[in-house]
């Protein structure tokens, strides 16, 4: 069931540590933050807004309607190296915590948690960059970009995890999603989507290609919360389609990995477009590592090991130079089958953690390079 398009609400406030304007952000921080209620979505003159470290509590839905321009973007970030936490636990049930109906924004370095429904919904957003976010423990999708006119957005070096819902038996709360919309030039790079009750990445009913690079999806579709009637929520790592009927779209995935998901590692999900999946790895997933049954997709240099079935492929798939096209690929060819380093803290600047997990000794050009 698709969520409603939402509604613009009066400009809200949240309570928390001080935030600073673009002018104040260039000067040394005050000795101690004061308790006041900053407006985040505020006047158009706030082209940079730095939130002080600490917890900022939303008490009502936040709606962003002011756009920047290509020459002067609007930026919201943590102040210097401080970690700003947006806690949405007090937002009324059934409301989206943050709705953005604006373009040319950069949202960087924030932690967003505990929303009763979707945490952050970007409606017809253009040229917005989400970077170094941690969006977790929300009652719906962590970050959802939706509706026509979703153009040129980038989701970079971010983690979307432990999002879970009870209203749909766990089936709604994806980590990251582009859904119910259209628009070209959208990119996901360097992200991790994990331990969500539904899918890691979900592209259901999005009718233009999305590019996915160097991203990992793991542990999705597992009930970690005791959700009544839990249905695994799909539990796919990368769900590259969906809908009734699903649109035919040429999504592209490269240098990415899916492991320990309850469902498929990578799946077309009834998308009969010519998807292209290259240099990616599926490991130890509960269903097939690569499931492309009805599409003429192109699969090259992919690695599938220890999945329930390595592949489910239809007759129209163009697959060459993958591990299943060769002999003698086994888990013993891996340098490491332990994901703990890949699931650990990010590196400097938000980079994916260094790891030897899923790298192989036989052909370094096969599968994800895990960086």
- Taking pLDDT < 50 over at least 5 consecutive residues as the criterion, the unreliable ranges are 1-39
CATH class of the domain at 118-350: Mainly Beta
Strand arrangement across the biggest beta sheet: 2-3-6-9-12-15-18-21-24-27-30-33
Task: Please name the CATH architecture of the domain at 118-350.
Answer: 3 Solenoid
Structural summary, described in words:
By secondary structure, this protein is mainly β. It has a domain of 233 residues: Single-stranded right-handed beta-helix, Pectin lyase-like (Pectate Lyase C-like, 3 Solenoid). It contains no helices and 33 strands. The N terminus is likely disordered.
Features:
single chain, 371 residues, mainly beta, Pectate Lyase C-like, eleven-stranded mixed β-sheet, 33 strands, 31% strand, disordered N terminus
